[in-house]
Amino acid sequence: AQSVTQLDSHVSVSEGTPVLLRCNYSSSYSPSLFWYVQHPNKGLQLLLKYTSAATLVKGINGFEAEFKKSETSFHLTKPSAHMSDAAEYFCARGDSWGKLQFGAGTQVVVTP
Amino acid sequence: EAQVTQNPRYLITVTGKKLTVTCSQNMNHEYMSWYRQDPGLGLRQIYYSMNVEVTDKGDVPEGYKVSRKEKRNFPLILESPSPNQTSLYFCASSPTSLAVRPYNEQFFGPGTRLTVL
Fold first, then answer.
1. Across the interface, which of A9, A94, A104 has its CB nearest the CB of B102?
2. Using CA atoms, how far apart are residues B35 and A101, in angstroms rounded to an integer?
């Protein structure tokens, strides 16, 4: 069974409009959750992480994510997309063995 | 600058020709890991290392070997590469395993794009 499901493989948004990237996880306990971004020909960079301190997590570049235990979701949002947000985004979950389980990724396209 | 470096960045080789992809980190991290990235599958863990001389299999270890003789280096070895190992490979490091500190960030190298003909 997949531990992390990213519900959209591709998302296209216009510059200046909101971005929503959806992530659901499977877990019997409160997991550690992460969002990473991968720009073309680059490694992965951490956007934000859920540490159980607060359900609304703020990250870099104006991104934030909300942890909803009842929905087992950790969706990523940004109020206003910028051209530089075009990239692939990965949701990941730390499992009980200490491994990072990744979703399949969401490719974000930003149009002028 | 704190970083994870990988070499080479691009490699084209032929079936059966042994190769090594190097990975080095300068952050004194205990935990290191190798992933492969394939379209539609995200990143899958190949091998990981909790510390020097301690390595273990990830989700897709077949066809790969690793070693951890020094804390900073974690090479990935393909003894007899096959076309299904054509992929984008990432090395990552973290202060400790997520099992010890669940919220540790993993730092990723720039990736190695491998093509096996």
1. A94
2. 11
